[in-house]
Every structure is written in structure tokens, then in C-alpha cells.
Amino acid sequence: MSLVEWIDFQSLGDERGRLVAVEIGQEKAVPFAIRRIYYIYRTEPDVSRGFHAHKLLRQVAIPIAGRCRMVLDNGHRREDIWLDNPTRGLLIDSMMWREMHDFSEDCVLLVLASEHYDEDDYIRDYEQFLEWIQ
Length: 134
Description:
This is WxcM-like domain-containing protein. The protein is mainly beta. Helices cover 6% and strands 46% of the residues. It has a single domain (5-133), classed as Jelly Rolls. The chain is built from 1 helix and 12 strands; from the N terminus they run E-E-E-E-E-E-E-E-E-E-E-E-H.
């Protein structure tokens, strides 16, 4: 079973441009109430981010511009995927180690989160993460 679960958002538009609406509570929509929204931008191509898991928090990562490579790890298997489509969001469940690499110069990564920021929810050490999931 793949670690990757995509949420496909409908792209609407005409000759004026495109629009993507993110909804909650609809089929093929964000499966949790959004309590926090943030975005990552101007990350240098040789810089990697993430390197943590969350005990409870769930997220959807949407590359609204550019692309980056995401590594997901459940402690048993790792998968690399490219986030490069602004109409697809990557659902990242709790207790999933995540890393972000290879940011394009124009990458803007929008993240929808199920909880407010809570430092106690983070697991920032991979060995400690492995202990938590055992």
C-alpha cells in the first residue's frame, strides 16, 4: 500500500485564467477542519526542510507554484514523490516522517493543517520517531 494519498482539486477557468477552490466536508476535499494555513517560499534549491513527524497533526501540502520533492516515511517504508501540480494536494497523516527537498526557485508550497501550531506535537528526531511508532 502506498504512503501517498492525493486530493484532486477541481480547476475552473476560461480565457482569463484558472481558479482552484479548496473545500472542507465535500467528497475529494480536505478531510479535516483547517485550523492553520501557511506557505513556504523562497527556499534555496540546495536547502532541505521538514525532517520531523507530528503526533496528531494532519496536513495537506499543495504546490501552488513550482515544485519540490517530498519524502514520506512511516517507519517501515519511504516514498519519494514530486509535488508539482497546483490541482493536487498531498495528504500527510499524523505519525508520518516528512522531508522536503529539491525546491524549484519559484516554489510556493501551501500547507493546510488540522491543528494550531504546538511544539509538543513535533517529533524532530528520526530515532525517537521510530520508537513512537513501535
